[in-house]
């Protein structure tokens, strides 16, 4: 209920009647005259009710003296503003009003001298007369008291008083009277009930009755019948907590715009709990409230003084805050930070720890009062939850040592770290959007190299005097650079400003001698006084704005004498306003640029883009180039474009002057296939004789399609009489019975044919018999070739668990011991030794691992002299040889941990080489004798094979895949002795230490004559590594011959020799200027090759296959590689043609898997080695060196695929990775057509996979692969 009354009367009545601080609350109902307690007692009796009327105080007569002010400037001007005035402080001289007050009278700490008398409310009235305390008067016309929603008794209503809503209309409240602090902030003990709170049912306010009056005059009013609602249900069982109450006004009241309801803050059990232990004062701070009333009346001060009872504050070294409060502000923060003032008396206090406040978001001193010399604070710990470091939070904390801010900080307020010369920040959190006035002023220890990209505002003097920052650019979203923002920051080296900048404040870059701006953005409208004062690095500035920005004579004062401003032709304002005193030259601006719309390149191809400028006489034609995808196309700053891999990317050119752009779409794709027709076909035999009862019973015809680079070399075979001789799809001819048959080969393209006449005989002589006359018997013993020497492999399952993408596990030592013992029982173990393989087993996916090898297990493996240990994980496979294990044992103490962590922070050359392909940081860790973590630095004489799982992209050449090593995540070293292993699906390489290893791709040229060649992957391998080169830009000539000079060059490059180390030549036919000369000299000096005469080498002579085998054996021997015996020895049909001195070499190279037969059980020792065969031999050698135990898929020297198992080629049916293949009696995989096997027809795709459950050439194929007839 509302009553109109005089303002002074309202103030007195509100003080006397409305608010109570007693446990029991009584409300006096005003008499009609407005002077008494109730209708029975119309006046207060001090002797009865204890009421004393409030006395208004007089104004304070104190006048501030210089002692009342601090040395903190609050006028926004800098200390030396008189020397370098800005736009806003030109001619400014600091007066007393420029400095912050620190005066007791200002805070309300008045003395009798100042004449101030405070208004003192009287003792609350607790009087209730006997009549009013009895039953309500039935005839009085008064209503029963009502109970509000929060359980409080509402005041009585008369319904007859003036101003009642029902009588006069809606009442608009324009303001509420203040609530006493004791009521506004209440602290009650746990267990307090709702009716035990002081919640006034009457509020004083100002307002008016809504009427036709267009300009009503507010009057003082009293609102009765007020109830209060808490922000959450009241819990009187709570031990601690806080509630915020707001009033519920009776019906008929509305609030004017901008008027807010008053609030009452109630805390249960107190907001702050503290305890002093061992020099640490622990503060539990759950609620900040309104931040305290003043520096002598706040929760922090009261609680700290209470906690220190009996203790000396001089003993406190650290204040540690904990609790759930979301902010510490106002006098709570001011009081806390002032404890670190040099004169606070807290003699030992140096640290502030806020890490326990996990909900804390904001700290700030918003009282407007700051003390200088907060020198005690040295150590500060902030929780990660902090988002705002507000105004003056750490102002003048000169000895504060701070190296980083919480990552979630978004705002840094005015004067937040002003004068904190001890902080050494190197970066600011990425999310910072605002940096306040003088936030880091005079912070000479910070060394920022960049500012957060989302920064929107840098206020005046934000980094003034920060001589350690070395910015090279500013965030792109900045529009204003405020006065003195970077004053004296001599370390910044800006070359340009953000395009959106419109204003540059006074002294913004004064004394920034390192900036070398060459242009100012086109939108700049105003540049303040002394903005670039003393910027001696400025030499030439291109002015983009067509209308001259407003400047002052001092804007560019004290810069270099030769500073020239290039102003746009036709621009306005550059002949006045201070510009007339500068050295200006007109230029012709760029209005637009263009590029060719499209460009098509081949992989590894290149081209140059030329920019067209409009107008053509534009003065400045510098262009900035950028590629949208450097994995597809790279571009340099001259517009030279280089194709990296197939795909499409956009090249953007941006003119530096004018920022005009143009784009070109670049497409990289393989050259379209060129169809080369077949012109003929020949056979290796025109006639051949077979026998039915002795060898040869069969032979192979080899068809040579001409030209060698014909697009379609497919052929078909036919026998004129299959009753005499048959021929299969590979040209293998088999005798059936005596007679003559003609074998015809026909090309699919052009139907070209060639024939061979086959005569089949049967020898009926019975083998000859004895000729009589005695006989001589010779017994010839042929040495048995060595057997494959693979060790016996013990495979042990290693269970792993997966968490956060990392697999962890530990091989069981007992199972390892049992596996070693079992493997040792194998007869081969006595000669070949044993090896151990741990297979990580889990159904979960992961991209890294941490595997612990117990010391006992490591010692056991070494004691067993295992040849190698494999850790097979599926993401990174690692193989340690015995020497590597011994080196780890020597360096490490205790258990070791093998880790592989995905490396995501590559940069520079490493990122360019790897792109998005896998990269892992590999380590062998252990705990040293000093208890600290340590890492095995190298494997000494040992080697470790690293295999990174990788599925090549469709556009990638498998021969161009490398293992790339990076020591620092930025540089890149391409390991030439690395390769993609088809069998394991890994990119493998042999290393001598761990670091970051990744998959890189360096493609070879897209040769037109290798697209369908059987050795394409091997050719890509050697060309990518620079071992061999194409015969021209587009061709490799794979079936061309290999020369002696060519081959030793490849071997020298593979060995990584320095050609400069071999400047002379011992052979007369090798000129020292020839490209192969140093490699010939190296090979001859090492005994790898010898001359063809005393002084001749014959570099252009071709080499045969047996010579190649002999050279490779000597190469391995001289460089210290041990060739493995990986395959069973083959006895070739042309064994007798191998030069006797080369037989051992041929056998060793064949059993190592470096060379093999050419088909039909032939080695072809005297055949000239082709360039394709040379490429294949070089790649196989590299892979054998990396992993001697490799098996699985392999090609013979005619390009036919075989699958090796147990050291020999598989024959018959074999399921590999879920796909069925068929290998003939010679171990050759069948591919590319129909084959009859055991009376059934099967179809094999070009890759050898058997077709099943499909339809081909009109035939239905069963699920088992057999054709339905």
From TrEMBL:
Cell wall-binding repeats mapped onto the chain: 1210-1229, 1231-1250
Pfam families per the UniProt record, alphabetical: Big_2, Choline_bind_3, LRR_5, SLH
Stretches assigned to the SLH domain: 1002-1062, 1063-1126, 1129-1192
Signal sequence bounds: 1-26
Residue ranges of the region described as Disordered: 136-167
Basic and acidic residues bias spans: 136-145
InterPro entries xrefs: Big_2, Cell_wall/Cho-bd_repeat, Invasin/intimin_cell_adhesion, LRR_5, LRR_dom_sf, SLH_dom, Surface_bspA-like
Composition bias type Low complexity, residue spans: 153-167
Cross-referenced PROSITE patterns: CW, SLH
UniProt keyword Membrane, yes or no: no
Alphabetic keyword roster: Repeat, Signal
PANTHER family, alphabetized: IG-LIKE DOMAIN-CONTAINING PROTEIN, SURFACE ANTIGEN
Record-given protein name: SLH domain-containing protein
Species per Swiss-Prot/TrEMBL record: Enterocloster asparagiformis
